[in-house]
Each structure stands twice: as C-alpha cells, then as structure tokens.
Amino acid sequence: MSSFLALIKTLVLRKSAYSCYSKRGKILIKNYRKWFLAKVKRAIYDFGMIENGERVAVAFSGGKDSVSLLYALNLISRSLPVKFELEAVFIKTGWPMNLLVLEEFCRSLNVPFHVVETEIAKIVFEDREDGNPCAICSHLRRGALHSKVLELGCSKVALGHHLDDVIETFFMSMIYTGQMRVFSPFTFLDRTGLTMIRPLVYLKAEDIVFFVNKEDLPFITNPCPANGFTHREVVKKFMADTVKRFPDFKGRFLTSIQTFDQKNLWPVVRPRGKGKD
Question: How far apart are alpha carbons 197 and 51 in whole angstroms?
C-alpha cells in the first residue's frame, strides 16, 4: 500500500465518527464538510484512485457535481502532506454560456482552467438529427476530453458521477437493454492509457446539493434542450418515488452491489451441445 493511500485510510477512520444524518434522516450541518470529504477520501482509498505526485484532470462541466468534485479534491490536496495536481477541463459544446463564473472559481482555487472549443451541439442537433442525441453527444464530449487530458499530460480523469448516477445507470441498463450492469468507480482505458475515477461514488445527489449550498459554490445550468427529456430523467422520477416509500433505498442499493454474489441471483445456463436437439 502506498504512503498516500495509507494516510487517507488513517484520516478516513479518524473522521468516521462524524455523522451527516439524524435518526429522522434530516441532514445535520455540524461537521458536514469533514463528513463529505471523508466520503471522498474513502472512495479514493477503497479503489486506489489517486497516487502521490499524479496529475488529475477534472471533467469540469460547471454543474453542481463537477464543481463539488473539483472543490473537494482541491481541499484534500491542500490538507494532506502528499500532493497531487489538478487541471479543470471544460468541453464547450457550442451552446451560449457565460464561463466567467467558472474561470473565477478555478482562479480562486489556483487550479488551471482549460476550455476546449467544439461544435458538438451543431453536429448532434443539426447534422445528425439522431433519435438518441445523448449517446452521440456523450461520445463526442468524451473524445474531446480525452484528447485534451492527454495533451496536458494527466494520467487520471476525475468524473463527477455519484451514487444516484450508479443506481440510475443500473435501472436504465435493466429497463432499456435487459442487462444488469453499472459503471466502475475506476476504469482503465487501454486505447488511451487514461484511468477514469469517480471520487463522489459514495455520495448521494442530495448530499452534493447540500454541500454546494452550504459552501456557497458557484455553478451553471445545463443549456442542452434535451435536458430533462431523457431516459435518465424517467429513471430519476422512478427513483424519487421509490425513495419516498423506502427512505433507505440508496444506501441499501450500495450495500447490495458491494456484497453481490452471482450464486444468489440466478444459476448459469448450461450451453447447448452442437448437433443435439
């Protein structure tokens, strides 16, 4: 175990006594920042996401998730004796946006802010006019992001996916493709040599919203016209209804994927012999 990960483990265990929720599920304000950062550190330690001396590019869309991710990683990098460098990468898709607030935010953190100009909006909504714009847009943004990250010489890309995204991806895959799958907290890409990491994976969407409000962090809204009218939005509403009936649903889901056992789900179907009826 590296000295960096060992130190994170020590700090996480030391702060494990901090609680975010009361017995009635109400978010408590006291020690909230420490609780939030402890969750991020726990994810980093559990999956070996960041090593000492690495350069990490944050996929910085300017939304609540990526803003809280950049802010949290910056605090962690400042508070630990071992260091890693951060770069904020914004993919400009072509929609009119005021980036001044994001530039000023990154400047206040002393984190370089890089803007990648693209024509993704035009390609997706004018040139292609595909029935599934989200898939094309995601593919194009990912390609632009990876190219810039490689240009910057970073080895890791931090994404702002949180626990709600994990659950939504699971049900989207099940409902729309008939498969049971989620994304991994970390993923190594053979073609680029980059590793995708998701340090917010132990945090719920409401945790992040509360953190952004409490820390008074700036953010911008998603200008895409398809926002709010996607398959993911359908699953979000399904999840909201489920949480109303089962308040512990998200936590239980996390436990279930951490303790998953194929033997307790469904037996493997025996292959059919060739040439047999």
Answer: 12
Residue 73's H or E segment, with its range, is helix 64-79
Strand pairing of 55-59 and 156-158?
Answer: parallel
Which runs of E-coded beta strand occur in the chain? 55-59, 85-92, 113-117, 156-158, 186-188, 195-197
- Return the residue matching tokens 């909201």: 240
Give how far Cα 141 sits from Cα of 61, 117, 121, 219, 242, Å: 11, 11, 10, 19, 32
Helix (H, G, I), strand (E, B) or coil at 85: strand
pLDDT in tens, the chain (277 residues): 565 555 555 555 444 434 455 444 555 556 899 999 999 999 999 999 999 999 999 999 999 999 999 999 999 998 877 789 999 999 988 777 889 999 999 999 999 999 998 877 777 766 566 666 777 777 788 999 999 999 999 999 999 999 999 999 999 999 988 988 899 999 999 999 999 999 999 999 999 999 999 999 999 987 766 666 677 888 999 999 999 999 999 999 999 999 888 778 887 788 886 555 5
Distance CA 143, CA 149 (A): 10
Round to whole Å and give the CA distance between 232 and 116.
Answer: 26
The model carries a pTM of 0.84
List all residues 6 or more positions away from 228 whose beta carbon is below 8 Å from its beta carbon. Answer: none
Give all domains of the chain, ordered by start, each with its CATH number.
3-259 (3.40.50.620)
